[in-house]
Write a structure and sequence with these properties.
The protein is mainly α. The protein is built from 9 helices and no strands. The longest helix is centred in the last third of the chain and has 36 residues. The chain starts with a helix and ends in a 10-residue tail after the last helix. Keywords: Membrane, Transmembrane, Transmembrane helix.
Length: about 240
C-alpha cells in the first residue's frame, strides 16, 4: 500500500510528464500505483523514484500519450452522454404541460389583435427570447465555483454550450427577420400569426434554459467526483 507522500509523488510525476488534467492524472496514478506495488514486492530494496521511472518506461517511447489519448476519447464520449441526459431531463411532463399553458396564455392577445399589434407583439416575443438566450450565455460564461485545477470532464463544457446557444440565437434572429419580411402574407390572419410567433419562440426559451441546466449539472457531477479539484488551497 503506497503512502500519501508516494501518491503525491506520482501525481507530480504525471503532471511533469504532460498530464495536465487532474481527473485524468488520478486514473493514471491509480494505474501506476497498482503496477508499482507489484514491483515493490519483487524489488523491496529498490528506491521508489527508480521504480516509478521503470514503470513509466514500460509504457514505451510515447510515454503516457497513448493512454491519455484513449482516456480523452472515452471521457469526451461520457461527457456527451451525460450532457445529453441532463439536457433532456429538463423536459419533464410537468414542464411540458406548463409550457403548453404558457403558450396558450401568450396566444390569447392575438385572437382580437390587429396586424399592427401582431407585429409589435412579435418583436416583443423575439426580443424577450433573445434576452433569455443572452442571459443564459452570460451565466454559462461566468459560471461560479469553477475547479481550481483543470478537469478533462469540464474541458469544453462552457465552449460547447456557448457555441450551441449562440448558434441557436443566430437561428432565432434569422427566422425572426424572415418572418418580418414576409408579413404581407404571414400576418393576414392574426390568429395564425400568433400561433407561428408563440410556437416559434417558446421552444427557444426552454432549449436555452435546458442547456444551462445541463452545464450546472456537469459542474455538480465534477464536484462530487473530484472534490479536491475545487478546494481553494489547490489553486
Amino acid at each position: 500500500m503506497l503512502t500519501n507522500e508516494q501518491i503525491t509523488f506520482l501525481d507530480q510525476f504525471c503532471e511533469k510528464k504532460g498530464v495536465r488534467y487532474y481527473d485524468l492524472r488520478m486514473e493514471i496514478v491509480d494505474h501506476l500505483a497498482t503496477e508499482i506495488e507489484a514491483e515493490m514486492q519483487q524489488q523491496a530494496d529498490t528506491g521508489f523514484p527508480l521504480l516509478v521511472q521503470r514503470v513509466f518506461e514500460s509504457f514505451g517511447e510515447n510515454g503516457f500519450r497513448s493512454i491519455v489519448a484513449a482516456k480523452t476519447e472515452s471521457t469526451q464520449d461520457a461527457y456527451t452522454r451525460s450532457h445529453r441526459s441532463y439536457f433532456w431531463s429538463f423536459f419533464t411532463p410537468p414542464k411540458i404541460i406548463l409550457t403548453l399553458l404558457i403558450a396558450g396564455l401568450l396566444f390569447l392577445p392575438f385572437i382580437y389583435s390587429s396586424e399592427k399589434a401582431v407585429l409589435y407583439l412579435f418583436r416583443v416575443y423575439v426580443s424577450f427570447t433573445a434576452f433569455i438566450c443572452l442571459l443564459t450565455v452570460s451565466a454559462i460564461l461566468i459560471q461560479p465555483g469553477g475547479s481550481k485545477m483543470p478537469l478533462l470532464l469540464l474541458s469544453g463544457v462552457k465552449q460547447k454550450s456557448l457555441l450551441r446557444n449562440i448558434g441557436l440565437l443566430a437561428a432565432l434572429l434569422i427566422n425572426g427577420y424572415n418572418l418580418l419580411r414576409r408579413d404581407h402574407f404571414i400576418f393576414v390572419n392574426p390568429r395564425f400569426a400568433g400561433g407561428v410567433i408563440v410556437f416559434s419562440t417558446m421552444p427557444y426559451v426552454f432549449i436555452f434554459i435546458a442547456r444551462y441546466q445541463a452545464v450546472l449539472k456537469m459542474y455538480a457531477k465534477a464536484r462530487r467526483e473530484y472534490p479536491l479539484a475545487f478546494m481553494k488551497n489547490n489553486s
